[in-house]
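dude i think i finally got it to work??
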Amino acid sequence: MTTVAPMTTVAPTQPVISVKIAATATSIAKYAKVSIPAGAGISVKVLSSSSRYCKAMGSSVKGIKKGTCKVTLTVSPKKGPRVTKTVVLKVS
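look at this
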């Protein structure tokens, strides 16, 4: 007789953002469960309500001070529709 363990899904962990550590757009996309096709453009934008807690630097987000950071992630594939998702991240 064989015992089979139930399948479990592991949720992606939130990217670490702090004054010293920036989160990349790729890590934020994984957390938001957005796939990035090969050759796709990816951008991040910090919402104005979060500008005192974090800032976008190229394709990454860096913390300014502890709080909650809201980021809009946009993935633009070569073909197909653009995918936009807003993610809430904790700045520690």
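The mean pLDDT is 90.
im so relieved honestly
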